[in-house]
Amino acid sequence: MKPSVGFIGLGLMGRPMAANLLKAGYDLTLWNRTVSRADALVAQGAKRAATPRDVAAASEVVFTIVSDPPALESVLWGETGVFAGLRRGSVLVDSSTVSPALARRAASVAALQGAEFLDAPVTGGTWGAEKGELVFMVGGEAETLKRVELVLGAMGKRWFHLGPYGAGQTVKLAMNLILGLQVEAFAEALALVLRGGIAGEQLVEVLQSSMGRSGLIDIKAPMMLKGNYTPSFPLRLMHKDLGLALDLANQLGVPLPATAATRETYSAVKGAGKEDADFSVIASFWRKP
Ligand code: NA7
């Protein structure tokens, strides 16, 4: 029998993920800080809870996917938080991108309540979330992962068990560091060819026919050439992730010089921007309006 599922965080990623759970026939209870963001899903049959605590009390498997570490702390802890309602024997799956240390802290509180925990951040963007083709990077017990595989399958196409609590977050931060640097590298190369009087499209054509070919650039190059930065993965979240990667590197004593330099570009553009733009907006660092 399908477990009852709770879902907390209906942002760009959470909404399509929750919609796929509904489509797959799960009994779904939702909470989002901005209440109206749950309206469409409630109209399709999901139940609305008043607090994250109530979501947990109603669910055998609880998913969270919120912006950043403070947002996760605020939905998990406190009088109305998930831990105030988490059921013995249930599984809490956090798909936000946060620090491995926070994942381990959440896992130990869940264990004290007789519940299981997985850190399971995702990759695939809003496009992957809509298609149900996300990839989950999982930290925690293999047995716990087995218990929720069917539920993950309603939202994603693959999952990797990467090690103990926090391992999913560690790999996610490493992955996003690569994506952040790739877009930075392309933006620098684009600035160079444009100043050299060559069309950006020509750079893309050659690059994508070469060993340097990248799936990410297939998606980001058209946005960067047209200056259309509708958010798929917002700059503010990439900026956060590069910061989390640098914090982790600091804790582990690993130098990340290129990541540190790249984050400065992201910081400068984030500081100057007023709207919620995609992270490919860093191209504007070289192409001032
Ligand atoms: P979005 O679209 O920015 O959505 C963020 C979600 O987090 C959204 O539901 C927010 O609620 C919620 N949020 C943010 N701050 C809080 C606090 N303080 N308390 C409760 N809820 C909060 O992000 P994405 O969906 O693209 O990404 C989510 C995660 O996956 C993130 O870690 C990425 O790096 C990967 P709101 O609707 O604003 O009230």
Describe this structure in words.
There is one protein chain. The protein is an alpha/beta fold and 289 residues long. The protein has two domains: 5-164, NAD(P)-binding Rossmann-like Domain (Rossmann fold, 3-Layer(aba) Sandwich); 170-286, Orthogonal Bundle (N-(1-d-carboxylethyl)-l-norvaline Dehydrogenase, domain 2), CATH 1.10.1040. Helices cover 50% and strands 13% of the residues. It has twelve helices and nine strands. It has helices spanning 14-23, 39-43, 52-57, 69-76, 100-112, 125-131, 142-153, 167-195, 200-207, 215-226, 235-252, 257-272; strands at residues 5-8, 28-31, 47-48, 61-64, 91-94, 116-119, 122-123, 134-140, 156-163. Strands 1, 2, 3, 4, 5, 6, 7, 8 and 9 form a nine-stranded mixed beta sheet that branches. Helix 2 (39-43) links the parallel strand 2 (28-31) and strand 3 (47-48). The chain is globular. The model has no long low-confidence stretch (mean pLDDT 97). Ligand NA7 is lined by residues 9-14, 32-34, 37, 65-68, 71, 74-75, 96-97, 237, 241.
